[in-house]
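Per reviewer request, we include the raw input and output of the structure prediction for the construct analysed in the revised manuscript.
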Amino acid sequence: MGDQRYNIHSQLEHLQSKYVGTGHADTTKFEWLVNQHRDTFASMLGHPNMLDYVAIAENESRGRTKFNLMMKMIQPCGPTPGKGAVIVQDTDKPPTAS
């Protein structure tokens, strides 16, 4: 039983070192979300029928949809929180009272 646990643990460590998206003990919630979003966008780009579905739903061409998905992959969840990220607010709109 103990040998199996060690074997599974070493296999998991190998996968985590080989593939970025598998995560590790120090993976933050933000990093996990970024990996999930990028995997989803990559899957949409890799499956032509899914790309067609998204293009029809957004009323855009396949090329434009492909471009938009590629651009979303750069920062799918916005800037990294807490690491000096500057959040730009829209200055054209006056602040609303709550």
